[in-house]
Amino acid sequence: MWEFAARSLNASTVFTIAALGELIGQRSGILNVGIEGVMLFGATLGFIVAKTTGSYLLGCLAAIAIGGLIAALHAFFSITLGGDQVVNGMGIWIMGFGVTAYIGYPYTGPLGLERIPDVGGLSPFFFLAIALVVLTWWMFAKTSLGLRIRSAGESPSVTEVSGINVTRTRYLSVVVSGMLMGLGGAIYSLSYNPVWSINFLLGWGFIALALVFFSMWNPFILFGGSILFGTLWQLSLNPQLVLPDVLSRYIWRTVPFVITITILVLMSTRWFSSRWGAAKPEALGLPREEE
Amino acid sequence: MRVGSYEVKLEKKVRVSGLEATIISLLAIVIGLALVGLVFLEAGVNPLNGYKAIFSYAFLNPFGLPLTINRSVFILLCTCAFIIPMKAGLWNIGMAGQLYGGALGAFGVALAFGAKGSQTPTASPGMIIPLMILGAVVGGALIGAIPGFLKGRFNTNEIVVTMMLNSIGYWLIAFMIKEGGPFMGGGGEGQGFKLSESVFAPMAWGGTFTIPIALAVAALLYFMFAKTTLGYQIKAFGLSPSAAKYAGISSQNVPLLVFILGGLIAGLAGYHYFAAVPGLYKIPTNYGDFGDLSFYGIICGLISQGNPLAAIPFAMLFGGLTNGGRFVQGQLQLGYGIDYALLGVLMITLVAFQFFYRNTVVWKKIERES
Hints:
heterodimer; A: mainly alpha; ABC transporter involved in vitamin B12 uptake, BtuC; 13 helices; 2 strands; 1% strand; globular; B: mainly alpha; two-stranded antiparallel sheet; 14 helices; 5% strand
């Protein structure tokens, strides 16, 4: 039982770190629906670097770097060129999907490194995730940097007038957010499921995106949601734990996706959306008018 | 900004003419192809020779051309499935799930009439084939209706929902065709049953009859958006849902309708590839590849700016590129997945070029002050 719980928490680590990244970017007003693409880049490049150098550390660093770089591209399209953020995000996602399929293919198969030592079944990344959740909360609640990011996401023109460089704040947030997404991808490909195949994230990035909406931009709710999804995912892989022989294992694989849709619908109900609307960064996804 | 003795300024465009849009789109494609040319260089192949091999196999080779046409029809149908919600300002990235639904519908009908393998079907092909198409259309529309209904009724984010449905459809097909599922083929591991020869899709003018159907769908859509009230309502909703509401356009029905129409056409794409393309006539093990191929519909829809007729040549181009890419990667010893690399690079260059749809770069010589 503990083994199952630990495995679920390891899965939730991937959701937590990637979704925290998305949360930071969205707080500054930039929506990145291409989170799946950024994670695919991090997962694939991290996997390749770790496999060729034999070093997990280098793998993670490569993933963080490529995540930041890809997110900087999104920032350039969305902030400097002022394009539609959803279109740009879609571009990032499909680029990640297509390009990683090509560059990762020669490395198809298991990583073949000794596994990262765990603490009672929990990967060390899980503790990193907890630290990052607390750190993110603290940054937004207590620091002036957090306040700057939040105000850039709420009302960019007022923020600009009060002497804060909105463009720089947003660039910073989006690049950091991409680094976290890249790291999330690397945790998936190096620790949770160290076997590369085409598009092996299977929509985890989109689930992480849904989690951010679900969290009402609160890191602690986001962490709770991640644990819920990590557990659901593990259950769908091991249906014999709950209802042996009831449904085909393929049907069970659809369960996390069905639940994601259900939760999204619940969030859209009037009861939830009145709260949701209050928490949503006011300028999220809006192109900025330059005078 | 000053560059040398020139003043460079950006001006917002109010309208993009058809000619301008075509030039920008072609430029985006050329730059995308040039970037992928780096892959050829890395493999020690002259990119020009690489593309020559791709295009001559795709469009001039007697074996390659039919494959290109089949892929293009598939991409064109996926593009139409993407365009209809796009006109309403909504994102349908669930063509994969919808075409899986279409495949399940079509093969469900075939199975119901015993049109499996060497068995003799219990009804005439003249009845089964139309019913299979109906099954495909209904299957696709049902999957499409889900995000449409949720968007209209609850304002649920359609991007996440359609993406989740892609995964759900993927596993549903796995359930149907693998490990003793109802559609499992005899003997073959992990693939669906083969259709009876009598219910193979009929051919028209040397190609599958789905070719004229796809062209008709594109023409019909063009007409719908140009001339009908319905098309006008969808476009008005896309420009401003709240303004459309004052014009009496239902904010619940439009999302539902556009996704049903989109899903219906994607279902047809599923029928086309799995039940009409010669040599296949079954749901193969690698059915996921066709789900991936459907994402070309997004690029094609964006690049043709939502114009279904303009999408036809682009669908041909992408069909040829993916087909030729698959062929040359074996011939020129390139890595697997050159068609995936093309998909990714073309998409991002296109997104970058969206900038030029919105802005004009103006160069003005600065007069020397005397």
